[in-house]
Write a structure and sequence with these properties.
13 helices, 2 domains, 12 strands, alpha+beta
Length: 390
Amino acid sequence: MTLPLYYNWRNLLRRRTSSVLTFVVVAVLVFILAVLLSFTAGIRASLAASGSSRNVIVLAQGATSESTSVVLPQEASRVVQAPGIARSPSGELLLSHELCVQTSIPRRGGDGGLANVAVRGVDDIAFEVHTEVQIVEGRRPRQGAMEVVVGDAARDRYANLELGNEVSLGRLENRAYQVVGVFDAQGGALESEIWAPRTLLTDSYNRPFVSSVVFRVEDGASVSQAIDYIRGPSVQLEAKTETAYYEELSSRSAELVWLVTILVSIMATGAAFAVANTMFAAVDGRRREIAMLRTVGFSRAAIMFSFVIESLLICTTACVVGLGLSLLVTGTRQDFLSDTTWTVLAYELTITPRIVAAAVTTTTLVGLAGALAPALRAARVQVIEALRKA
């Protein structure tokens, strides 16, 4: 025979102060857990959506990203001999020389914070190589004109990137480039960038080299041959597929996952102690009641189960509220400064089914851990002794 559920609710409402405090602790735990996990999931989703398995990116040997890569003109010229490079319908090689620099742009919202935004110098062929990039507003920049196009994520996250606005670029930030278009990159990392004509960007920053060379191969079978050629004695540069490049950047987020795990574990331990404290207080205040329940026929197991249910009721309700609060900050774009590229990556906070499952699992474990010892203590209450003291 088990105790009815309304009995557990009634006891929680009788101990409003301790129940509410425990509820708040667990709800805050769930809220922080959901936000931190959505942070790492957003970064991974943005990087996972970047690049193509048919695109090969060429960097300087030893470079960890485009921001730290310097490919000299004579080195870049040797890349065109790689086997299997595809051609456009007009017969032009689908090969893009690209220069990556950074500029500081204030974030939206008036907080005054500056973001280190990536600026990519490209030729017209880059739009054919990066097939995921599509102009959704305005037009492409004209080569030789001081014009830029901005990623949709960059425009939403950073100030003064609307069509018609001007962006100050160059070593002294004294070159005014006009925003003439907005592009979409299917939610990938390129959407956080600004694209400008490469020749003008080279002049503005006085950098007579490129950061990378990206080319498209004819088919998947040509990828390994092209990479082997780039890494070989004829070129001696580093090469990898775009998807592999962004996967390596994504692997850096594993450190964030460990940090989140450690932080949440500490908070979960504190929440479990808060639950245990509440349930121990309940046992001490209800010793006579527990004795009466035993007297009328409820078993030790039923008493234990009743206290576990009360603990889980607090935690489950707090989990729902915590997840509900986290939804208020999801769907918004944030940015993250990568320690590899030293530029910001705009991403979207999203609550996924895995995050919900992680929150439910965590609160269930907290509820069980916090209720176990008090439930055992309640089950061991001596009936005669408790009735005498009452």
